[in-house]
Design brief:
Layout: E1 58-62, E2 67-71, E3 79-90, E4 99-114, E5 120-130, H1 132-135, H2 143-149, E6 151-165, E7 168-175, H3 204-207, E8 211-220, E9 223-225, E10 228-230
Antiparallel strand pairs: 1-2, 3-4, 4-5, 5-6, 6-7, 7-8, 8-9, 8-10
Length: 237
């Protein structure tokens, strides 16, 4: 039995009321309201349906009294992150892996930005620390297990991609190239090694380990030719 816990957050409603009455021949107390109104006074409120230049992070709230706009921006454009806490409980394992055998805290940072001209840069890394080895007696574990599983900092993607010509794309750097759909039985998907240290416990996005490669795509009609140059040989964990 395995338990996971993960710590992974406008509706704009515009009400418009229009009243039009055609009244003729009324006395001094008659009031006329027209749909097409020009020359609003100082207290009038005007709302445009067609609004341009609003970014993806802009929220606009409209009510009967005021219009307020708030914009949310990140400190570094293109940078995002995720903090995860994972707890594993194994009721039938032998000591020292019985009971709670993993209390892992992970931090994932990702920088993904596309510059003018279509050049894209992507860099992400993940660091984790498993506190179970500090909670339990370290002498009960092998040095090899502690070295491999207690803590780690891993650089995943680190590549640049863009166009060399209208029909030629490039992608150079540390990357994952997936050929096929299976994650455990791999026939053609052999360019990237995998993390098999704890089967079934590694997030699918972290299963494949990136490798330094250069990938080119040449498009000719309905055909695509993809030469790949591999600069590094990595083995599965």
């Amino acid at each position: 039995m395995k338990l996971f816990s993960a710590v992974l957050l406008s509706t704009i409603v515009i009400y418009a009321n229009g009243v039009a009455d055609d009244m003729d021949g009324f006395d001094d107390k008659t009031e006329v309201v027209a749909d097409d109104m020009d020359g609003f006074d100082d207290n009038a409120k005007e709302t445009k349906d067609d609004m341009d230049g609003f970014g993806d992070d802009t929220n606009t709230t409209v009510d009967d009294n005021n219009i307020s706009t708030s914009t949310h921006t990140s400190l570094i454009e293109g940078l995002s992150g995720e903090l995860t806490e994972q707890v594993v409980y194994s009721p039938k394992s032998k000591a020292p892996h019985d009971g709670i055998n993993s209390v892992k805290s992970s931090l994932f940072l990702d920088y993904d930005h596309k510059f003018e001209g279509g050049v894209r840069v992507k860099i992400n890394a993940k660091a984790y620390y498993d506190a179970i080895y500090a909670i339990k007696d370290k002498n009960d574990f092998t040095h090899q297990e502690i070295d491999q599983l207690e803590s780690e900092v891993e650089l995943f993607d680190a590549f640049v991609e863009g166009k060399m010509a209208d029909n030629i794309d490039y992608k150079i750097g540390r990357q994952v190239i997936v050929w096929g759909r299976s994650d455990t039985i791999r026939v053609t998907d052999i360019l990237n090694p995998i993390d098999n240290r704890v089967p079934g416990m590694v997030d699918i996005e972290d299963l494949r380990l990136p490798v330094n490669m250069a990938k080119f795509d040449y498009f000719a009609g309905d055909w695509r030719v993809t030469p790949i140059v591999i600069f590094e040989q990595r083995f599965s964990k």
